[in-house]
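Tokenised fold entry reproduced for everyone:
>
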Amino acid sequence: MEKVKTKREISCGAILYAGSGNRINVLLLEQDNAHYKRTGSEAKKAVIDIGPSGRKEKDENDEATARREIYEETGLKGLNFDKGFRFDLKYEFDATDDNGEDVHIMKTRRFWCARLPEGYEKMIRISPEHKRYLLEPIGKAIKMKELEDSKKDALESLKSYITKVKRR
């Protein structure tokens, strides 16, 4: 039996939000399933993500990766990250690498948060890997069936963080 190599990957991004207190809205991105080559029943599923993020490139630090990915996926730049919030979403999966070899991926998606700027609606340009964006109240987003539990946990953590910060 051949041993499958393990590869660790880090992706960085941010949960983007507007509002404050009990009126927090989060920007969600609906992914284009064709971009991810899903087939069968998976191709018909709506896949919603909690924010732009992507793989870290060589010689890039976490913040630079997050900024590049936010710009590539939404067209937004110059956002201020709240460094008091960070949520690491971890999962594993099997894949085939660029050389056609089987590989086990241990993935960490690192999210900060950033407030959307005034007039962001006119600035957003969604990348081809997404169908659309949604701005949803955080409580409603947490209840969406299209969101995986780990993504709901990230939003719960953000909601708790923002509520705590507002009380200070």
About this structure: Helices lie at 40-44, 62-74, 120-123, 138-142, 149-167.
